[in-house]
Write a structure and sequence with these properties.
Largest sheet: 4 strands, mixed
Helix content: over 70%
Strand content: 5-15%
Oligomer: single chain
Number of strands: 4
Shape: rod-shaped
């Protein structure tokens, strides 16, 4: 083999190795590109998952806050309605005087179980009724009493109250609960 043939053979071998290196580099580049694309999709999927979780958490926080605000508004509305119902009902106590009031007054006086008292406080319209039941008592009129009476015994040490107002106040806790339940029932319909 001559010198020229040797050089041609080395060139040919060099070209072959160069092509093998180029082919290997291209395969490696393609493999790395493919791995990069796979890794990129994985990262995008993880990022999407994280974004969805963050969005879901934010949505949950917003909904929770909205529900809290709605509860506050409902409670304020209920309180407003209760106050209005209370005021209306209290304003209607005088209406209880219109039907069989002398019998009602007698029942309220008898419930106290007091025969002798020193002082009785009543609505100004009840002065005569008090005289029938407590003829020896000092009678005071009080416009804030719509019906019923307050009696004082043992030198004023004992004060018994059986007025429409106090009976309404005692019943209000139960009535208030019923009003709220009815409002919520109507709201749920």
């Amino acid at each position: 083999m001559g010198y020229k043939e040797l050089i041609d053979a080395l060139k040919k071998e060099g070209e072959k190795q160069k092509q093998e290196i180029r082919d290997s580099a291209e395969r490696e580049c393609e493999r790395l590109r493919h791995e990069g694309e796979v890794r990129m999709r994985e990262l995008e999927e993880r990022a999407d998952g994280m974004i969805k979780r963050v969005q879901a958490e934010e949505r949950r926080k917003i909904i929770s806050k909205a529900e809290e605000e709605a509860k506050k508004i409902i409670l304020q509305a209920e309180a407003g309605v209760l106050k209005r119902v209370y005021e209306l009902a209290k304003g209607e106590l005088k209406e209880l005087r219109k039907k069989d009031y002398p019998e009602v007054f007698r029942g309220l006086a008898e419930e106290l179980g007091v025969l002798n008292c020193e002082k009785v406080r009543v609505n100004p319209e009840d002065m005569e009724l008090v005289r029938e039941h407590f003829p020896d008592a000092v009678i005071e009129s009080d416009d804030s009493i719509s019906g019923g009476l307050e009696v004082f015994i043992e030198g004023g040490r004992i004060h018994l109250i059986n007025t429409f107002e106090t009976r309404f106040e005692r019943a209000w806790e139960h009535l208030k609960t019923e009003v709220i339940e009815n409002m919520r029932y109507i709201h749920d319909i």
